[in-house]
Amino acid sequence: MSLSAGNAQQTSSQDLSGKDQEVHMAIWGSVCDKFCREFGQNAYDTWVSHLIFSSFEGGVVSLAAPTRFVRDYIQSHYATRLNDFFKADLVGMHELVIRLDSSLQSKHREEQAESKADAQSGDSAVVTSANFEGSALDQRYTFDSFVVGKSNELAYAAAKRIAESDEIAFNPLFIHGGVGLGKTHLMHAIAHEIRRKAPQKKVVYVSAEKFMLEFIAALRFKDTHAFKQKFRNVDILMVDDVQFIANKDSTQEEFFHTFNALVDNRCQLIITADRSPTELEGIEERIVSRLGWGLVADIHPTDYELRLGILQSKAEANDKVIVPQDVLEFLAKRITSNVRHLEGALTRVMAFAELVGRPITMEMTRNVLQDLIRANDRKVTIDEIQRTVADYFSIRLSELLSDRRARNIARPRQFAMYLCKQLTNRSLPEIGRKFGGRDHTTVMHAVRKVEELKEQDSQIEDDIGRLMRQLEG
């Protein structure tokens, strides 16, 4: 994901010029990157994407908003964090001001009108929200640009099947995984492919947040009929981040009836969340049950090979700067949290090199990404792994470290040894000593055993994935 380039252009040329403009463009892009990582793509698209960087004078950063509503909402919900992001990158900055710029209102209205026109046009297979921006498709998110690896191959194959087949093989398709692992990318890719292959089909892609906001607006203006027509008179409905409607009783009621109506009419549903249906908290049991009716596909955290492949693909698509292989390998090893952070890191390095006109080196990369590298350097300890595994399997820590060979104790012990090997820099003898003085060959056996079990049993692979996410998070 590259926010830097796109948002750096949203800068008032009358206030900035020359080198200052380039610097502020880069800083604004960095702030947008940080905002998106913390609050998500939907929040960025809905609110911050409409801001314009106006000026930086006397320690005051000035942003312009197109409407009073956008300005007031950002001031009450996001201004504090935006201020923190600017202070981290901009020396001497001490205040953030968001002002209303009436000259931007016409552009804002044009964007809304275009969004509404696209939604009503028969030429477009994707219906975007008429009242809230943020449901438009990203042209970069296609199947061709999605790098497939072991951690995401099931979700990718299922998405391709839906996009290319006229038959409904599973309904719904439920894709779950952590932030920035590619769930939204796959949904956009499905919509792009359907628009190309079957433009007559009516497809709605919307975030769960926007589904809720539009439902609230429909209730407020007594127009629930139009709301139902929009979301039930479709061929395919895609709802992103369904966990957002947790504890929203009225929205869940409407979502439940929308779900049933679409299934009864043999319309395809594709839903994403940050966890599996059974782990969703605050979601009614009847909805949880229906979410598991079709195919549930998990996107696991990326491994080193997949991260390197993603970086190589992104670097090859950029013809302005050359990224050395050792820099790509360094990023693949050090930025392990999610794909969004990984791509954002490479984007920052390439943007910096282009702006200052210097070749990319390892030293430059380390300097540009100091904050991100520090954030990904959180050390996981053997003690922490042991406690986490014991809690996960509901056994006592003393049992995990004991000589007991009962299956319900030995298997978690092997899991813990495997995780110690994967997540720490400790040697096998050191790991063995931390498990009651065991020999390093015992640790080797445990690692090999878990790797074999992961290949044979998807439940074990799922358990390992959850433990890794818990420890790395």
Automatic annotation (TrEMBL):
Its annotated function is as follows: Plays an essential role in the initiation and regulation of chromosomal replication. ATP-DnaA binds to the origin of replication (oriC) to initiate formation of the DNA replication initiation complex once per cell cycle. Binds the DnaA box (a 9 base pair repeat at the origin) and separates the double-stranded (ds)DNA. Forms a right-handed helical filament on oriC DNA; dsDNA binds to the exterior of the filament while single-stranded (ss)DNA is stabiized in the filament's interior.
Q: Which family does it belong to?
A: Belongs to the DnaA family.
| Name assigned to this protein | Chromosomal replication initiator protein DnaA
Q: Which GO terms describe its cellular component?
A: cytoplasm; plasma membrane
The organism named in the record is: Temperatibacter marinus
| MF terms in GO | ATP binding; DNA replication origin binding; lipid binding
Q: Which residues bind ATP?
A: 180, 182-184
Output the lineage of the source organism. Bacteria, Pseudomonadati, Pseudomonadota, Alphaproteobacteria, Kordiimonadales
The UniProt entry, under InterPro entries, shows: AAA+_ATPase, Chromosome_initiator_DnaA, Chromosome_initiator_DnaA-like, Chromosome_initiator_DnaA_CS, DnaA_C, DnaA_dom, DnaA_N_dom, DnaA_N_sf
Q: Which UniProt keywords apply?
A: ATP-binding, Cytoplasm, DNA replication, DNA-binding, Lipid-binding, Nucleotide-binding
Name the SMART domains for this protein.
AAA (SM00382), Bac_DnaA_C (SM00760)
Chain ranges of the AAA+ ATPase domain: 169-298
